[in-house]
What does this fold into?
Amino acid sequence: MTKQKEKPLSRFGRTLLLILITVMIIAVLAGAGIAYAGYRITESETNLPNLMLDDILVGGLTPDQTVEKLRASGWDERLETPLTVKVPKDLSFSLNRLQSGAGITAEEAADLVFAYGHDGGWVQNLQTWLRARLSGYTELQLPEPKLNDTYIRANIRTVTEKYKELIGNGDILLDKDNARIVLTKGGGILHLDEDKLYDRTVSALLSGDRELNYTELEGELAPPDFESIYSDVAVEAKNASFTETFEVEKEVIGCTFDVEKAAALWEAAEPGEEVIIPLAIEQPEVTAEQLESLLFRDRLCFMTTHYGGSTDNRVNNIKLALSRLEGIIILPGETFSYNDTVGQRTVDAGFLSAPAYADGEVVEEIGGGICQVSSTLYCAAMYAQMTTVTRTNHYFAVNYLGMGYDATVSWPRPDYKFRNEREYPVQIRTIVDEENYGITIEFWGTNTDGSHVSPYTTTLEIYDEEYTDVVIGYGVYTYRRILDANDNLLRTIEEPYAIYHLHDENIAWPPEKIERDQTEALGEIVAEPDGYFLGIVPDN
It folds into this structure.
């Protein structure tokens, strides 16, 4: 077998091979260079060149330098400036951009800038670097914000609810004090749509706006029925008055308004605006306050008597009777009864046994002493111009009032009664002066004419039928002179005639009568069943 000789490469072939080897070497070196360049870019501590963020040149800066430049360009100021949203009725709210999710801090922005061209592979980062280097300035876009819907809607709801409160539910305020009717145009109808306001607010946030004026209102407007309102509001003035029982019925303030003018004012008002309709006011001549001030404004009279020397039981009875009179009101035309007011005098009612007159004798009686109260009341009632209906004087004169001015009572009779014939009610008020042992009864009412009472008495001696020159008592006529404010006599009223007996020891009997009475008394001997005898001893 013959061996073939290898032919040496031609010159062209050697050249071609050399070229191929060179190309391969260059390619290997180029790849290594690209990889190295990508590595250097990825590991660099500065931003890619020619980068812009929000019109601020931040290329070639470290993250710290980026933060400084962003702040120097007002980044924090814009971030800290809230968005103020204004709505009708002078309401507004402000949103913090960070809290709403519409902004990021300078540090967060610097991190985003640095990540551009650093967060891919070496080759990708090299390509990004080349584009940034060769294409002029690259404007970086911030990522889509993650809005805090809960925060934003809570602020929106605050103003929508407040607007609803301010615009009201359509009520009409009748303000007579300020002569006006007040209503809100669209009250109870107009409202703010929360979803629409949310969309506009988010748009303003993302646009970096500082202020948003939102005036869009929802709801169909229709004019009120002013004719119907007039029917409800218009009223004639009416004076305050007394009822039959002298309760005060309040006055009515008259008012009217111009229906056509009201409609025009409503039409001219802006939605949500208050419409003020003037009222024509007519004040009544007499008010409830004036009438109430008339009742019990004047002390018509008072009468004081003293109970010095009384027993504790008698004082108890006097105070108890007075307490039953305190505050009693007697209406015009009404008759007062002492017995009905004080009630039956019993131990259960709190009355005690004390000296009292009974059939010309001084005895111990439950409720003894209350005749001083009825007498004081009678005397005060005369001065108060009450009309006496029933009055009985004591059998003997009393020591706390002059003859003709007392009134005795017992249960169930005699009673003391009077009638109020004045124009206004009267009220009885009582006072106990323990220091001076006095009781006072006052009548309070309304003195319309200044008239007053001046009483006087005429006293006659009463003689015994047998001993016609012996005084055994007195007859007393009591009169009330009614005088006007200038002390001119208007009329004279005669009170019930009274007869007062003298105590036997105070009668100047002749000696023969005294001797005869003693003889008759000694002759009256009563035989008792047990054999004892009881003699009647005459008074000395």
